[in-house]
Amino acid sequence: MDALTIQEAAQTTEWSPRMLRYIERAGLIEPQRSQSGYRLYGPGELQRLRTLRELASRFGIGLAEIGFAMRLRRDEQLAEAVDAWFEAEPRRPEDVPPAEWLRWEQDKHTKLLALAAAATPATSRA
Amino acid sequence: MDALTIQEAAQTTEWSPRMLRYIERAGLIEPQRSQSGYRLYGPGELQRLRTLRELASRFGIGLAEIGFAMRLRRDEQLAEAVDAWFEAEPRRPEDVPPAEWLRWEQDKHTKLLALAAAATPATSRA
DNA sequence: ACAACCTTACCACGAGTGTGTCAAGGTTGT
DNA sequence: ACAACCTTGACACACTCGTGGTAAGGTTGT
After folding, report:
1. Positive or negative torsion for Cα B117, B121, B124, B126
2. How does B24-51 read in b/e, with b if 16+ C-beta sit within 10 Å?
3. Closest-CA residue to B55 (of B41, B46, B45, B65)
4. Which terminus, N or C, of chain B has the lesser number of Cβ atoms within 10 Å?
5. How far, in Å, is the CA of B108 from the C1' of nucleotide C8?
6. Rounded to whole angstroms, how far apart are CA atoms B66 and B51?
7. Which residues contact A6 (CB under 8 A, 6 or more apart)?
8. A36 to chain B, minimum CA–CA distance in Å?
9. B52: closest CA among B32, B80, B23, B30?
10. CA A41 to chain CA mean position, Å
11. CA gap A47, A41 in Å, rounded
């Protein structure tokens, strides 16, 4: 079996064994296991571990972020939802024709009441 | 000006004023400011704030993650690097032709030494 | 059999997240 | 002028992240 145990893998990748387990728990790199449960790191995993280190240090991002990026690739719904959020770029009032769905100028007191009613923009009865 | 102050915005979006400031600090939603420095939330911001809440609670993700997603859209280099990392899917030894760049079977003692030399895969002199 | 390795499960600890509250001071509407 | 709002900054607290240990027990090679 051309695979390394955790300690060996740690040395070649400059992670600590502790961190390799942590990375696994984070779902980033899950090595195969031997029959007795030992982690076995193959060339692919070693490569990814090195790149991971590079990635994290070069851009100053954490494992959690990369885990999230992974989630973004796996969870189609999540990706869509996030996309949708970014799609709705903050339009300044000037860009928005003076719709009536948010207008108040003077009636400052009833404003909030009206807003509360309109709190669900396109969801409730129009 | 058809924009809400922080407290009003908080009420319509079900965030607290505190959180609106926090969200701003996180770089997610940065409202315009009045001349005197008051935050002014327009319809766009309000919409995004509501969607943000939905997004966070529905998928159980934090503001930091969404901030990272934003960074992914802005920082082309980061996006590439992350892509590259995921591209290198973990190939099992079976998928990899028995290359010589990682081979040892019996020489368990010199193994680590050899590895240390090969630690920088494609970067160093080939 | 014995050392050297592996496993999981804990304790610890500084930094960051998510949230509230409070203080000191500026702005605004009536 | 005064109340009600806004601003930034701080203290606080529970929780997670990224790390390191250490302990109790299984595996492996010589």
Report:
1. positive
2. eebebbebeeeeeeebbbbbbbbbbbbb
3. B65
4. C
5. 27
6. 12
7. A17, A20, A21, A38, A39, A41
8. 19
9. B23
10. 25
11. 10
Residue with tokens 């860009």: A95
User: Which of A104, A108, A93, A119 lies closest to B47 in space, CA to CA?
Assistant: A119
CA distance A58 to chain B (A): 9
Q: What's the whole-model pTM score?
A: 0.75
* Tens of each residue's pLDDT in chain B, 126 residues: 579 999 999 999 999 999 999 999 999 999 999 999 999 999 999 999 999 999 999 999 999 999 999 999 999 999 999 999 998 765 444 444 333 333 333 333 333 334 433 433 333 222
Q: What nucleotides of chain C have any atom within 7 angstroms of a protein Cβ?
A: 5-8, 16-21, 26-30
Contacts of B104 in chain A (CB under 8 A): 2
Taking Cα atoms as reference points, which of A44, A37, A43, A40 lies closest to residue A20?
Answer: A40
CB pairs < 8 Å spanning A and B: 154
Chain D bases near protein Cβ (<7 Å) = 5-8, 16-21, 26-28, 30
Q: What does the angle CA B91 – CA B92 – CA B96 come to, to the nearest 5 degrees? A: 75
- What is d(CA B35, CA A111) in angstroms, rounded to the nearest whole number? 22
| CB contacts, 8 Å: A44 with chain B | 88-92, 95-96
